[in-house]
Each structure stands twice: as structure tokens, then as C-alpha cells.
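Lab notebook page, bench 4
Experiment: in silico fold of construct C2
Operator: M.H.
Input chain length: 224 residues
Purpose: comparison with the prior construct
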Amino acid sequence: MAAESTDPGSALTEEILADAGRQAERTAARARREAQEILDKAKTQADDERRERIEAARQEAERRHRLALATVPVEVGRMRARRTEDLLQSVYDEARRRLPTHEGFDYRATVASLAAEAVARMAGQAFVLVLSEADRQAFGADLAEEVRRRVGREGLRIEVAPEAAPIDGGVIVRDADGRQVWDDSLLGRLDRFWPALRRQVAADLSLDKADDAGPAADAAPKES
């Protein structure tokens, strides 16, 4: 029986095909590794970015929290200042309401005391007391003598003006020449002394120090 022959060309082809297959497998494996490395790197980068965003958000939240805490005392101060001013204004409004009604005090004695205080502080010997129409009719006839006794100055001449003053109570005192005028009307006196009174009220309420806004003060007689 004749020996079986081998085709060199066929063997070479098979070897080439086998080698190509091995190279293709190596290429595919390398491609898979590189693809996995790319995926892993992308995942790591995404995780890092996510953590950075979370950290940035946390820091921003802390910053806003600190800012909010820092504004609390300021806002509390503003609220207290507003409440202080509201309370002071209510005291002032209540005083303006009650004074013309003569509520809670001896009104006639108060008018006499105010007039005597004004006369005692003014220069001269002759003075005129100007009252509201209601007060002039109620006790104007006796007021001049009472004021004169209260002041106790020798040679003092005091009279009640025949004309009424446009006031809601109290008295306006002027000298005979009209050069000195002392406004001791109840509301005029309240406005004059309100800046000092409001500071005292604020202190009594144990609230923040009130500012000096309010009706203008003028405790001295007016020269004309």
C-alpha cells in the first residue's frame, strides 16, 4: 500500500489561520482590557466628581447656615427696636389722649402749679395767664391770685387774659410786654419733655435704648 502524502500548502494555510486566530484573540483580549480600564476610569472619575459636588454642596450649606446664624442677632435687634418704638409711640399717644380729659390728676391744681413755675422762672413783675375758654370760665377769676401766692414774689402783678388760647388745657404765660412767652399747655409741655420721657420709659421697660426721635424739645422760655 502506498504511503500517505502530506500537502505542504495545506499545512501552511492551517498554520497561518491558527496564528491569525491567536493574534485576533490577543487583540480582542487587549481591547476588552482597554475597554474595562476606560470604563473603570470613567466610573472613578464620575465618583470623584459626585463626591466633589456633594462636598461643595455641603460646604455651601454650612456657609449659608453660618450666615443665617449671624443674621439672627441683627434681626432680633431690629424686631426689638421696632417693638420698643411701637411701645413708646403707644405711651405717647395714650398721654395725648388722656391729658385733655384731665384723667388721673387734679387739673386745676396742675394749671396753677404750671403757671407759678413759669412765672418764677421768668424775669419781670407783670405777667398774663392765657387759658382755654373752658378753663377761663371755670376758674380764671381765682387763678391769678393763687399763682401770685404760690410764687411769693413781692410786687408781682398777674392777670388772666380776657381772650382764650387755642389750647386743650394748661396755660400759656407771657410777660406784660409780650417779649417772653412760656408755653405750659398740657400738650405743648408733653411735646417739649417727650424726648427725655421716652428715654426713661424705655429704660423702665428694660428695652433697647431708644433714639432721640420725637417732638422737638424746647424747655426755655421763648423770646420774641
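Observations: Strands lie at 126-130, 157-160, 170-175, 180-185, 222-223. The longest helix spans residues 8-98.
Next step: discuss at group meeting.
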